[in-house]
Each structure stands twice: as structure tokens, then as C-alpha cells.
Specification:
disordered N terminus, 1 helix, Outer membrane protein beta-barrel domain-containing protein, mainly beta, Porin, signal
């Protein structure tokens, strides 16, 4: 009898959680910042994102469209305390994610998904830097072999997100993701978002 009552209580709690999610808003717009790391060791920094998510099938599935911006500038030390403007990297990112929700309760949601990625890549990197050093230690006649790249990279990504509903409308979430393009190392991403449901 006790086992039956415990099972009945458990089922009622689960049913209540599902009904709460069913009545919850199905659209979410969020702003976030991620820590993004490219293949170069100095190409790290904030990656700003805007995401629209549509929950379907009573929150069993989530479809998200994300756009983002990343920029990295570095200085190159060619001699002692002499620096020149270094390498520049910029990414304008776009991702489409289809995710399922293995865990969904009144206030907590875990989504795991994957999808295509299309990123615009702008890179200015140095292949070689030559210079002349004067007798008094000044650097002159700097000649740099610069490699400029502007292209679209198509690939795919996988993402896991944990979301906590602070109020009925306000959502805080954390995410980790891996993005892969042909000929480019896997790009790890970890970040935090604040969203609004409607």
C-alpha cells in the first residue's frame, strides 16, 4: 500500500510538472556571452550571441536560431619592448540547432542538440616579419608577409544547455558547445545567457 501511494504521489508530481511546461510560453529570446577559443593560442575572447528558441511538442523539442559576433586582436613582440599591431580575427556566426529535452521540470530544463553552422571568417595573420635593427637599438624597415582571409565556413555543432526559470518570463542558462569546420580545429565554447519567454 505504501509503495502504491508513493508511486501515485510521484506520478502526480510528474503530471503537474508536465502541465506547467505545457502552459508555459513557447518562445524564448536570449542574449549571452561565451568564451570562445580558436585554433591559435592567442585567439580567445568574448563571443556575443542573440538566440531565438521555439519550444515544440510540450517542450520535448527545441528549435533555435543563433547569431553571434567575435573579434580578437593581438600585439606581436618582435624585440624586447617593441610591439606591432598583431593578428586580427573576426567571426560573424550563425547556428541552427534542433535539440531534445531529456530533463524538464517546472523550473529546470536540459537540452542536448546539434545542427549546421555557417560562420563568416576574417583573418589577418603574419607568415613572416623582417626588420632592421640600428646600432642604437631602434627597429626600422619592418616588412611583414601578411595572409588575409575572408571566407564562409560551413560545418556543424553540438550543444548542451541547462536553463533555470527564475520567473515565468525570465530564464538564466549556461551552455557548452563544440563547433567543427572542414580543415579547422574543433572550436570549444562555454557561456551564459539571459532570456525572456513570451
Amino acid at each position: 500500500m505504501k509503495k502504491f501511494l508513493f508511486l501515485l504521489l510521484t506520478l502526480s508530481v510528474c503530471a503537474k510538472a508536465q502541465s506547467t511546461l505545457t502552459d508555459a510560453p513557447n518562445n524564448l529570446v536570449s542574449l549571452g556571452v561565451n568564451y570562445l577559443k580558436l585554433d591559435a593560442p592567442d585567439a580567445t575572447g568574448p563571443h556575443y550571441q542573440l538566440t531565438y528558441t521555439r519550444f515544440i511538442k510540450d517542450y520535448r523539442l527545441a528549435l533555435s536560431v543563433t547569431s553571434g559576433y567575435f573579434e580578437s586582436n593581438s600585439h606581436i613582440n618582435i624585440l624586447n619592448d617593441y610591439y606591432i599591431n598583431g593578428e586580427f580575427r573576426r567571426r560573424i556566426t550563425g547556428d541552427l540547432t534542433l535539440a531534445f529535452t531529456p530533463i524538464r521540470t517546472n523550473n529546470n530544463l536540459v537540452t542536448i542538440g546539434l545542427g549546421p553552422s555557417l560562420w563568416h571568417r576574417t583573418d589577418k595573420t603574419y607568415q613572416r616579419i623582417d626588420y632592421t635593427l640600428t646600432p642604437n637599438g631602434e627597429v626600422t624597415n619592418i616588412i611583414a608577409d601578411v595572409n588575409n582571409v575572408k571566407t564562409l565556413d560551413a560545418g556543424f555543432h553540438a550543444k548542451a544547455t541547462y536553463s533555470h526559470t527564475v520567473t515565468r518570463r525570465l530564464v538564466a542558462s549556461g551552455q557548452v558547445a563544440l563547433t567543427k569546420f572542414t580543415g579547422i580545429s574543433v572550436i570549444p565554447i562555454i557561456g551564459f545567457n539571459i532570456g525572456y519567454k513570451f
